[in-house]
Amino acid sequence: MNTYTATKITIAYLVVGFIWIIAGDSIVEVFVETKHLSQTSIFYINIAKGLAYVLLTGLGLYLYTRSTISKLASLEKQYRGLFEDNPNPMWVYDVETLAFLAVNKAALKCYGYTHNEFLSLTLRDIRPVEEIPVLEQQIAFHNDEISNSGTFKHKRKSGEVFYANIYSATASFGKRKSRMVLAVDVHEKILAEQKIKQLNNELIAFKDRLDEILLNVNDIVWACSADDFKVTFISSSSERVYGYTPQEFYDDPSLWFSLIHPDDNVNVQEEFKQLLEAGNSESEYRIVNRQGETKVMYDKSVVKYDSDGKPKEIHGVATDITQLRESEQKFTEYAQSVTKILDGITDGFVTVDKQWRFTYANKVFQQITQLKKDDLMGKTIWEMYPVLLNTPFQTNLTKAAEENISVSFESQYPGAKNWYLCTAYPNPNGLAIYFADVTHTHLMREEISRTKNNLNALINNTEDIIWSVNTSFELMAVNDAYKDFITNLLGKNADVGEKAVFEHLPDNRPFAWKSYYERAFKGESFLIDDMYELPETGPVYYEVNFNPIYNENNEIIGAGCFAKEITQRKKNELFIAEQNKQLLEIAWMQSHEVRGPLSTLMGLVALFNKQDPAGADNIKILQMMEITAKKLDEVVQRIVTKANNVRSINDKAIEQHGV
After folding, report:
1. CB 284 within 8 A of CB 297
2. pTM exceeds 0.70, yes or no
């Protein structure tokens, strides 16, 4: 109830009271004269008259007050509904303490607090730390009028920062000085602007040049009369845009209309009609200047009225936005080229927002999924592909989104044979995801792994020593037999990537082995025999095979080596050599030492006189024959001894080696 209403009620009450008193007294006086009432009766009649006035006016005031209170309650409910059910976050705060006094449902949902939690906060609690000085400075400049404070960073309970545009106005909340605030979430808009800037990287040079042009553009300020549209003022920049001086516009009222592009003439005239009706307008049209150039103009106009409320003059600002529209066209073409590139790549590519809704899908992804773009847009990835739930796809994509990191993983599509390499990149709006079908590559890797395992099984299940070295003398591959041999020989470990161990060999072997490798590096394949003295087994002989290793370009990249133990063969060869030596000695003895005594005996037998066996000469011959026979017997004994040695060596070889 305002002051005006209260004044009306008071005046009405006084008028009715005055009329009641005058009329009532007149009626009572007439009644008294006709009825000849006593003073006591007159007294009671006056009392009744007063009570009747009080009752009637009281009843009237009661009914009026009740109606007013009901209307106020209804209005309060409507206004509270506008506050509580407003889709935008709203709150009321104490100007002095900045504490929240009231908050609506949208604010609770937007900021993530409960009602009690929110009312325990202040304005500082929903702003990032770096924004608090800006907040306090803004509050200091608040006045009693409605204020559009601008766009600021706000903070949710989760710590997430977002952008909001703030509008506020003074409000009364009990006896506390307060302001009511409406916050419009413009986070997506700000992020969209940032994304556009990011996509516009290739146009940075053009944009910089355009910014410089726009900074130096002089808008055309103009004014004309509202009745005949005669130009009353136009700035000098008109000559640069239109090609005509201000004076030429003053002299020819129809000049401006003659510059309008023929295709836009009807629209411009319609815009002027709407301008006069609405009082303001914003329009875009084309003009053809004196040089024959077509320019796009943006015009913002407002009508000025005289004291009678009639249109008097039109004021406006015209801006040449030709280059801006050209830039937008180039940007559109650029965006289309980016889309074309994404549609042309061989990988599937999609983007999803923070709610996992599809925002883009290229043609390859549509072909993979056999779904059209319209079938995907606005739907969540988990809604369209529930089989991906509780799989590496969900785990890794969720990690990328929640931790704001790039992820790359390989996984098999559930229920299918296909394998996909998935790479996800986070961005302010969600995720950009690439899908590449790597089924063939995956199967090849599995085949290579099986082949490698089979090869390892083959080379590690043999006692032969197998290894390879690169041209830097580093081990490229070794089998278990090689590792065991190096451990037994040198007491150290050998593994892939380490230097070949020939440098630690005794005597002149390091030089020899280096030369063996170098021969293989030059393309030679060859065999060598080598012997090593092992602590546990003694001398061990090996036959080593060297072969060059070639890459796909037929370039030698190392040497492959295969060593086979030939100790038994070597011992057999030594035995045979020793046996042959003994046999040669026996043969020599038979051919030389036996021949001398035997020849002497044969000569003495020829000299023996068979006619005179007891002759003196025969006695000497017999004595000489005895001496020669003893020499022959010694030779025979040595031959027998040699033969026994050969037999002993043979028996020992049979006993030890089965030779």
Report:
1. yes
2. no
